[in-house]
């Protein structure tokens, strides 16, 4: 109604216009099935959203938890549930009272049977069939049909005879012109280019040849120059060496001459000093010293030894004789003893002893005999003189010789030989 | 591809793709060789091309010398061409050689004159013919040897024209034999001298500088 009020058509001008105030349109699409109970049309109530009780305003964290005015109370709910239960119980009780068909007889069973003409399958399961439907895939746009315009005009015919339409020579002429002309032009150009290149290359080669020749020449000259220089260097070097050697040689010669002269006196003086020092020996002297004298000494020693041996033997003889005499005297002790020669014997005997002792000191062989000789001489002194008389001249000789012997150690062998000669027979 | 029976337009004329190339090569050869008679020479060129033989083409452009009939018209370049064509065989048939000579548009009198220097039956040793041609080019023995070196060498142009010493000595002996002025002793001594120089280089090749001294203008 409001819309109609706002609608207005244009005033009487002839053009058609229409305006209307904006208004909220109700949703045209039906969301839910047509419900039987709902009336066909209902006036749409719309109100301001600000004052709609369904919209919660304010803070939502302090809501009242009580039942909303639209919703029933919980007690109410319980009461309703109880009522439902009672109704259900009543219905059940009534059912039980309702008369039913009697139970089947023994051996039989009740079966539900259809009694109509056409049997019908009774099933709980609803027959469902899936059906699909789809629009066709996009078809290609069909090609545009050829546009064949309607035929207009008149048909006319004609005929071509052979040779009229096409004359080969005439047609081919431009082609040939192009072909031949282009060919000649191109080939001329190319030949010229090639010619130029070949000329360049040829001149390059010629130049290279010349250059090579000149290079060879230059190298040859360089070689020559180098060889000359080296030769010169070598010659100079050689000369230097010669001069140097020359100098050295002259120096050496001078040095040698000087040294020779300086040392001229050296040799005689050296020999003289050595000779003075006794480093040189007379060979004959040396020979005498080395060969002859030792032999001489040996011989002297030998002779001495002989004399010593002789004396020893003599001493033994004397002892034996004395012992025999002693024994003879002891045998002859009955006879009166002989006193006189005793002193003479004693003297020479006394003399004899120390001399003989001295002599025997110097001889090793008669060591054990010394005490014996002492005892013998001691024994002799109190006893016999006769025996001593026989022996005494010989003894005296020996004693004298013994005296002399000490001083005559180093004398010749002739004196030594004397006593030997005495003993030999 | 044979031409269709009826052709309607110029586009139907088919040019084989090799044709321009062949034409270009031919033109370049012609420019380089400068034959006196283009037709004769072209015939020779294409027949050699079809057979696969070496072509009678000069490597470097060389303006034709022969302006009159008196002059031989034989140039080093032409000899080189002949050498290129014939050098693969030791002996060449006279007929074949004559044909080649004609293809180069050289006068036949000269050919006969050359052959008379060293008469032979059917075949001629190619190197001998070359030597004779060289002698016709240059007046003296030395200059003909120089031409020979330049023709036979494998070195690049302008470089030291080197050829093996055996070839050189062979040709030298042959030419000096032809020329009765030079005694044989001289030839041998000359060759021996050259041989020493060559042996020192250890590659057996003799170059232009060894026997031919160019007087350089200062």
Explain this structure.
The complex is a heterodimer of chains A (425) and B (218). Chain A has a domain at 283-328. In chain A, 6% of the residues are buried. Chain A has helices at 2-6, 74-97, 168-262, 266-277, 283-331, 340-361, 369-380, 386-407, 413-423; strands at 8-9, 18-19. Chain A has nine helices and two strands; from the N terminus they run H-E-E-H-H-H-H-H-H-H-H. In chain A, helix 5 runs antiparallel to helix 8. In chain A, strand 1 (8-9) and strand 2 form a beta hairpin. Chain A is an all-alpha fold. Chain B has 218 residues and is mostly helical. Chain B has a domain at 66-213. In chain B, helix 3 runs antiparallel to helix 6 (126-137) and helix 6 packs across helix 7. The longest helix of chain B is centred in the last third of the chain and has 18 residues, at 184-201. Chain B starts with 17 loop residues before the first helix and ends in a 7-residue tail after the last helix. The A-B interface holds A 162, 165-166, 168, 171-172, 174-175, 179-180, 182-184, 186-188, 190-191, 195, 198, 201-206, 208-209, 212-213 and B 6-10, 13, 15, 19-20, 23-25, 27-28, 31-32, 59-61, 155-160, 209.
Question: What tags apply to this protein structure?
Answer:
heterodimer; A: 425 residues; mainly alpha; 9 helices; 2 strands; disordered C terminus; B: 218 residues; two-stranded antiparallel ribbon; 10 helices; 56% helix; elongated
Trace the largest sheet of chain B across and list its strands: 1-2
Mean pLDDT of chain A: 76
The coarse overall form of chain A would be elongated
Oligomer: heterodimer
Q: Quote the beta fraction of chain A.
A: under 5%
Indicate the radius of gyration of chain A in whole angstroms.
94 Å
Largest sheet of chain A, order of strands side by side? Answer: 1-2
Organism (chain B): Ailuropoda melanoleuca
Subcellular location (chain B): Cell projection, Cilium, Flagellum
Family (chain B): Belongs to the ropporin family.
Keywords (chain B): Cell projection, Cilium, Flagellum
